[in-house]
């Protein structure tokens, strides 16, 4: 391994694989290593036996759950906005040819103890039981304003903030449409929220479906492998099952290579998740998650086979939102008739089974329930000094917007330029179901 690489990427989590693909397409010489013998790192998908081994310590799941290989259970479950940044990255890199997507059936919000469809257009606002009659009209006007808003056209900016929406409406718009994770947005300029709402509406219109989200057939484990394939096509080298992967530095503290099994590969830059350079990252929080296997859709979601429900923090008396994600055999992640649901949140206690109860209570009867927690880290190093580019841990959200922002920021730091994502989204329709 005495070759020199432009970049060595450590870990095959989704963020690392996207970066490895983008950098390989740019013509950089990339070596990608992982201490595991599988793709995906923290964001891998498990079959039933792997799930049982991880959470129950045995490899004998009950026979009534069906075949192990029919399961693809995401460890970091997230949907993609149909018009969002990740889809633009997939199209920009042509990774869509390795994947098939299917629209997600429903997008819901928890309000006053009940689950309601998220109204995303002016017509839906008029029908929504979330609001009284006068509030519906105000919300409808606001939705029309957002749909017509064009940042570069001042004529569309009039009547700014004169809608007098009540706190209840502001709550579900901010959390279920604009996808803010807490209430900090209330103290910030409205432009970001308007843009986020536009993205939601555009994504919804793209499929004429019940939600703005799409999700790959066979689960998210397909994504890192698709980007790995892309990297390989452009000359990237992959090595799995490489123990230790120790990053080496010169006397100035700049990265010079990575050593594994007594051999050192030289490089100019290292990209990795926080687990490879723990002394250059700090803990910033913890995610609590419940994983449920069920034999029915989530109640009160119109029998949706795939669905996201957002439980805004204010509705639960919490500091951050809770997320409910469900997919099923229709996305090829479980045997026929089986559903996989996740309840996740930024952990505020050390008791996930108590903390996630509000979300678990919405699931109805479950066949099996697992609990998982993991720490979230973010980098504290200065990449311009050590040439180490470290991703942030995955958050509790069940959509990809924050994940992709991190990837694109890292790409800009590594290359000094932005990814050109001004792609024609209609060109992607071939990859969509």
From TrEMBL:
State the superkingdom. Answer: Eukaryota
What InterPro entries does this protein map onto? FAD/NAD-bd_sf, GDP_dissociation_inhibitor, RabGDI
Q: SUPFAM superfamilies per the record?
A: FAD/NAD(P)-binding domain
Which terms in the GO cellular component ontology are assigned? cytoplasm
Q: Which GO terms describe its molecular function?
A: Rab GDP-dissociation inhibitor activity
The record's Gene Ontology biological-process terms are: protein transport; small GTPase-mediated signal transduction; vesicle-mediated transport
Family (UniProt): Belongs to the Rab GDI family.
Q: State what protein this is by name.
A: Guanosine nucleotide diphosphate dissociation inhibitor
């Amino acid at each position: 391994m005495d070759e020199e690489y432009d970049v060595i990427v450590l870990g095959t989590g989704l963020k690392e694989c996207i970066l490895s693909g983008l950098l390989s397409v740019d013509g950089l010489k990339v070596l990608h290593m992982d201490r595991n013998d599988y793709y995906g790192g923290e964001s891998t998908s498990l079959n039933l036996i792997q799930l049982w081994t991880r959470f129950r310590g045995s490899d004998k799941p009950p026979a009534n759950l069906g075949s192990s290989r029919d399961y693809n259970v995401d460890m970091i479950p997230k949907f993609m906005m149909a018009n969002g940044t990740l889809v633009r990255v997939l199209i920009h890199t042509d990774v869509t040819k390795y994947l098939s997507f299917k629209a997600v059936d429903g997008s819901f919000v928890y309000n006053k103890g009940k689950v309601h469809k998220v109204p995303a257009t002016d017509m839906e606002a008029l029908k929504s039981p979330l609001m009284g009659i006068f509030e519906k009209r105000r919300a409808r006007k606001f939705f029309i304003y957002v749909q017509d808003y064009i940042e570069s056209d001042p004529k569309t900016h009039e009547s700014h903030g004169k809608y007098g929406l009540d706190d209840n409406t502001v709550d579900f718009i901010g959390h279920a449409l604009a996808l803010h994770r807490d209430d900090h947005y209330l103290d910030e300029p409205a432009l970001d929220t308007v843009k986020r709402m536009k993205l939601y509406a555009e994504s919804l219109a793209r499929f004429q479906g019940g939600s703005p989200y799409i999700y790959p057939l066979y689960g998210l484990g397909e994504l890192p492998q698709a980007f790995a394939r892309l990297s390989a096509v452009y000359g990237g080298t992959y090595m799995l099952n490489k123990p230790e992967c120790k990053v080496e530095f010169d006397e100035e503290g700049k990265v010079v290579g990575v050593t594994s099994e007594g051999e050192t590969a030289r490089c100019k830059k290292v990209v990795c998740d926080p687990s490879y350079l723990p002394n250059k990252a700090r803990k910033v929080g913890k995610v609590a998650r419940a994983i449920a296997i069920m034999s029915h859709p989530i109640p009160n979601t119109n029998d949706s086979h795939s669905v996201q429900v957002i439980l805004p923090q204010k509705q639960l008396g919490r500091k951050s939102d809770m997320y409910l994600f469900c997919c099923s055999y229709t996305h090829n992640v479980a045997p026929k008739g089986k559903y996989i649901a996740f309840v996740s949140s930024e952990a505020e206690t050390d008791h996930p089974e108590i903390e996630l109860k509000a979300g678990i209570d919405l699931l109805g009867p479950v066949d099996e329930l697992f609990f998982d927690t993991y720490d979230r880290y973010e980098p504290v190093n200065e990449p311009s000094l050590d040439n180490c580019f470290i991703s942030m841990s995955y958050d509790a959200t069940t959509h990809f917007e924050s994940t992709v922002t991190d990837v694109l920021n890292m790409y800009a730091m590594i290359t000094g330029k932005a990814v050109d994502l001004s792609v024609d989204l209609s060109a992607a329709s071939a990859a969509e179901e």
